[in-house]
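Cross-posting from the modeling subforum.

Setting up a comparison between two proteins and wanted a second pair of eyes on the formatting. Protein 1 (sequence, then structure tokens):
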Amino acid sequence: MRQVLLHVVMQSLIFSSILLVSANAATNTHFEAIYQFGDSLSDTGNFVREPTGGNSAYNKLPYGQTIKHPTGRASDGLLIVDYIAMYFHLPQLNPYLATGSDFTHGVNFAVIGATANGGGNSLAKQLGWFKTHLTSTFHNPAAIKERLQKSLILMGEIGGNDFNGPFNEHKSIQEVTKLVPGVVKAIKDAVEEVIGLGAANIVVPGNFPIGCVPIYLVQFATNDTSKYDELQCLKDYNDFSKSYNHQLLQAIQQLQQEHPDVAIVYADYYSALTLTIRNALNLGIEQDGTKKACCGTGNNPHNFGSQSCGSPGSLVCPDPSKRVNWDGVHMTQQGNKGVADELIKQFVPTLQKHNR
């Protein structure tokens, strides 16, 4: 009996050691901080601290209901960046406009509605905030470089709103395609700028399969079944995303050749969301919950219409964790977690390889 117990204990210790080694191998790339640029997919509270955003729906329930209070996140709960921070054992990033906050482990510069090109809270403005933060926090360029060498830069997702606006105005795909080179250039220039400051690990996300997002599925619905793929997403709009992502990837590959000592990693949001949709049942998501908004009101299969989430008359589904999409545009916490899990599988091994 004693020998049996000893054998069980030894097996347990061996198994625990294997798990510990695996866990250490998975997170052996250590970062002191994360700096996030982007739009509503990443904003953790900048927009609601601006004069135009303080009274917005994003600053009120039901936004944030899964984490018990609104934070300015465009979701019922956590975002992709929150799960990435958790993976690297870092706290959630405070928004840049939350003056007096702790920025020891990074800053979130993303703003709801931001674009890669143009005015407002564009990528250029966020880069300005970034440089202001660095120069006011660190003493000289050498100290800034030392900090950035030990940090992870998340350059987006940014650029989606450059296309969403024109598409919402019913511009044709051909017209919107003309905007792609400018968006790619803006992101490429931003990456080069942070490299110039000392950044050594940069993740650059592409765009989602927008043809799977409720707002697109409602606005561009058609009776022509040939316009839909096997996931019942709009093929033409997904093809647009693929084309944009291909051009962005080419730009990233060119940057990597020019800066071999810097890890510049493409984050494939397209495949991450597609896999989340395909694996929905394994994630506890309802059969019809992959392209149906949890919060809103719409007389259509996607629950998206004129009464947006948070407006009078809008409704919230009983369990947001059973849906991928939250409000017709943004994902639920469950959707964000599914996508984040896929992204981490993608880019962490590349970062580890580069940092050996």
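Protein 2 (same layout):
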Amino acid sequence: MTPRELVLESLAKRAPPVFPFQLDLTDEVQARLALHFKDDGFFDTLGNSLAQERNELLQQISPIEVRDMFGVTWSREQKGDFGVVLSPILKEPEFGSYRFPEPDEAAIRAKCERLVAKREQQFTMYIIGFSLFERAWSLRGMEDLLVDFILNPDFTDELLTHITEYNLKVVELVSQYPIDCIFYGDDWGQQQGLIMGPAHWRRFIKPHLARMYAQVRRKGMAVAQHSCGDVSEVFPDLVELGMDIYNTFQPEVYDVAEMKRLYGSRVTFYGGVSTQRLLPYTTPDEVRAETKRLMKVLGKGGGYIVAPTHAIPDDVPTANILAFLDAVRNQGEK
């Protein structure tokens, strides 16, 4: 079976002969492994099951600063991180002269064409990062947005509606190509619970998410949702809305076996191999053993894409990355 077929089997909750896997890398780690393998193109030979393109467009405006397509300027002084907002654009709970962007149609079409070229072998994902809450706080500021949830609910609804409308336009363009999945990235969780709490999540985030998911499903694509942290308080809501794939699935915040028991018949889990503790701080043998254990626990009846919880950061030893690859490439009996 091709890697794409393995993912489709997992989504259908049929146990594939081997589990699909994905290994994503930060730029620093990719450069390090290119030296290790003596091959700048090594990433294309890893055997990853997913082909991914990101919607984000960034304009370099200084050696350490970029501007995103919504006009927000980010400092990227620290390597391996998306960056820090230098100054929110919406300094008051009003829009003033600010105008929301239109999707860059030419760029989106070029990315979709690259995905289509890989679809015979890989499951194709179009990633819309900073898809709702994160986009809102990048425009408004985290603290001010959370205050707006309480003091300025009408403004908050309008802000989230504008962001949702942008996303729907992107999905409409992507749906003109045979892409398998829309992947929404939006961090709501902390190590313990939701940043805004379940009541505010249901009041402000869920209605817009419902529109976003419904459009993807109408277009015949799968819905993948990324959120770091513990979102278990609203996991039933995500299932209700039609989430097909959940990422990152951090073992530090979830009882992975219990989550599999509760939701494994309806959701495919993508992640689970810890970049917080396992990969940086243990031995290669421990990485192999834990990766195999996760495949056994989470892979029962399909519904699992084996992967680190995040793109591999620079504190992970090369030997541990190779141990993960060894475990997923040589799965043997599950």
